C-alpha cells in the first residue's frame, strides 16, 4: 500500500507548484547561507533535512554493519514516506553512519530458524523497501561510503545516481549465489536496467562483488571520489538533479521504472510465497548457517 509513489501519486505538478525552492536552482538557498536544518531520527535511521536546499541526508545507523533487519526495513520505509510527504524535501542522499560499511544487506539472522509467518513479514518489508525507494518521486543519490553486498547494493541501485568512496577495500555487488540463495526477479530487473542483460546474468550467476574501479567501469556506480569527498560530491550532484523541472524529471523516472514496479506489485503475494518456501528448505537453511559460521570464523 505504502509504495509505488511514482505510479499512484499524481503529485508531480503539485509538488512542483508547492515548492518553496528556486525553480532554476533549488540549491540556491543553501549557497546563500539561509540554512534551516531539521534533524529527526528513528532508532536506526538518522535524518538531517536542510530546508534551504530541499535535501535530506539519510544515514543508516545499525551497527556494526547496517544489516537490514525487519526493524530497520520498517523504519526505512516510514522515513522515506515521511520525507516524500514533506513539501520542503525534494531529494535524499542515502549513506551510512557506520565506518567502512554502507550496508551488509539483509540481516541473515532474520532468514534463519524462524517461522513461516516471520519470513513472510520480513520479505514483505524487503519488497516495501524496494517499492518505496525505487518508486520515490524524490531525487535519490547513494553516497556509498563502504562495502555494499546484496540488498546493500540493491538499495544503492534503487537510487538515481551512485557515488562511491574510492577505497581498494570496498566492494559492491549482488552476491546472493555465494550464500546459496537466489536474487529474486526484481533484484535482477533493477540490475538489468543498469548493467544490461549479459552482464547482469554473469554478475548474478557468479554472485560477483566488484572492486570500486570495476564497479565504475561496468556502470554499477556512476562516480568514484576520495572517501572524504563522498558527501560533498553527493551534495553537488543532487543540486544538478534538483535543477531540472521536477514534474518532467518525475514523469520520466516513472516512465523508466513503471514496468518493473508493476511486475512486483502484480506478483507480490506469489513472490512472498516463493520466498517462504525457498528460505524454509532445510538445504537453504544449512547454506545460510554455513555462511554465517564462515563469517564468524574469519575473525578468529
Ligand atoms: C527461486 C525464487 C527465489 C526467491 C527468493 C529466495 C531467496 C531470497 C534471496 C534474498 C536476497 C538476499 C539478500 C541479502 O542481502 S543476503 C545478505 C548478504 N550479505 C552478505 O553476504 C554480507 C555478509 N557480511 C560480510 O561480508 C561482512 O560482515 C562485511 C559486511 C564485509 C563486514 O565485514 P567486517 O567489518 O569484517 O565485519 P564482520 O564480518 O566481523 O561482521 C560483524 C558482525 O556482523 C555480522 N554480520 C555481517 N553481515 C551480516 C548480515 N548480512 N546479517 C546478519 N549479520 C551479519 C557478523 O556475523 C558479525 O557478527 P558477530 O560480531 O556476532 O560475529
Automatic annotation (TrEMBL):
Signal peptide interval: none
Record flagged with keyword Iron: no
Catalyzed chemical reaction(s): (3Z)-decenoyl-CoA = (2E)-decenoyl-CoA; (3Z)-hexenoyl-CoA = (2E)-hexenoyl-CoA; a (3E)-enoyl-CoA = a 4-saturated (2E)-enoyl-CoA; (3Z)-octenoyl-CoA = (2E)-octenoyl-CoA
GO molecular function, one term: delta(3)-delta(2)-enoyl-CoA isomerase activity
Pathway note: Lipid metabolism; fatty acid beta-oxidation
One annotated GO biological process: fatty acid beta-oxidation
Gene3D superfamilies listed in its UniProt record: 2-enoyl-CoA Hydratase, Chain A, domain 1, 6.10.250.170
InterPro entries: ClpP/crotonase-like_dom_sf (IPR029045), Enoyl-CoA_hyd/isom_CS (IPR018376), Enoyl-CoA_hydra/iso (IPR001753)
GO CC terms: mitochondrial matrix
Pfam families: ECH_1
Enzyme Commission identifier(s): 5.3.3.8
Acetylation found in the keyword field: yes
Keywords: Acetylation, Fatty acid metabolism, Isomerase, Lipid metabolism, Mitochondrion, Transit peptide
Subcellular localization(s) per the UniProt record: Mitochondrion matrix
Function: Key enzyme of fatty acid beta-oxidation. Able to isomerize both 3-cis (3Z) and 3-trans (3E) double bonds into the 2-trans (2E) form in a range of enoyl-CoA species, with a preference for (3Z)-enoyl-CoAs over (3E)-enoyl-CoAs. The catalytic efficiency of this enzyme is not affected by the fatty acyl chain length.
Family to which this protein belongs: Belongs to the enoyl-CoA hydratase/isomerase family.
Quaternary organization: Homotrimer.
Protein name: Enoyl-CoA delta isomerase 1, mitochondrial
Organism: Leptobrachium leishanense (Leishan spiny toad)
Amino acid at each position: 500500500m505504502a509504495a509505488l509513489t511514482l505510479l499512484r501519486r499524481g503529485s508531480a505538478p503539485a509538488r512542483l507548484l508547492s515548492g518553496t525552492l528556486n525553480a532554476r536552482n533549488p540549491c540556491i538557498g543553501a549557497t546563500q547561507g539561509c540554512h534551516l536544518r531539521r534533524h529527526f531520527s528513528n532508532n536506526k535511521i538518522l535524518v538531517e533535512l536542510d530546508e534551504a536546499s530541499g535535501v535530506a541526508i539519510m544515514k543508516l545507523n545499525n551497527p556494526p554493519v547496517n544489516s537490514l533487519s525487519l526493524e530497520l526495513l520498517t523504519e526505512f520505509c516510514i522515513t522515506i514516506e515521511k520525507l516524500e510527504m514533506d513539501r520542503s524535501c525534494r531529494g535524499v542522499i542515502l549513506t551510512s553512519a557506520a565506518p567502512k560499511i554502507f550496508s551488509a544487506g539483509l540481516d541473515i539472522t532474520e532468514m534463519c530458524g524462524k517461522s513461516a509467518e516471520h519470513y513472510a513479514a520480513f520479505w514483505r518489508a524487503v519488497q516495501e523497501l524496494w517499492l518505496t525507494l525505487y518508486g520515490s518521486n524524490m531525487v535519490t543519490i547513494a553516497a556509498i561510503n563502504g562495502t555494499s553486498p546484496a540488498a546493500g547494493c540493491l538499495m544503492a541501485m534503487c537510487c538515481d545516481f551512485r557515488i562511491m568512496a574510492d577505497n581498494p577495500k570496498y566492494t559492491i555487488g549482488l552476491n546472493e549465489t555465494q550464500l546459496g540463495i537466489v536474487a529474486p526477479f526484481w533484484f535482477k530487473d533493477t540490475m538489468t536496467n543498469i548493467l544490461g542483460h549479459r552482464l547482469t546474468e554473469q554478475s548474478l550467476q557468479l554472485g560477483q562483488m566488484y572492486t570500486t574501479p570495476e564497479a565504475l567501469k561496468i556502470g554499477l556506480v556512476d562516480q568514484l571520489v576520495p572517501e572524504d569527498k563522498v558527501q560533498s560530491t553527493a551534495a553537488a550532484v543532487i543540486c544538478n538533479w534538483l535543477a531540472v523541472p521536477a514534474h518532467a524529471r518525475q514523469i520520466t523516472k516513472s516512465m523508466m521504472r513503471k514496468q518493473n514496479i508493476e511486475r512486483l506489485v502484480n506478483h507480490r503475494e506469489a513472490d512472498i510465497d516463493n520466498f517462504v518456501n525457498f528460505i524454509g528448505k532445510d538445504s537453504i537453511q544449512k547454506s545460510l548457517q554455513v555462511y554465517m559460521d564462515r563469517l564468524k570464523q574469519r575473525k578468529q
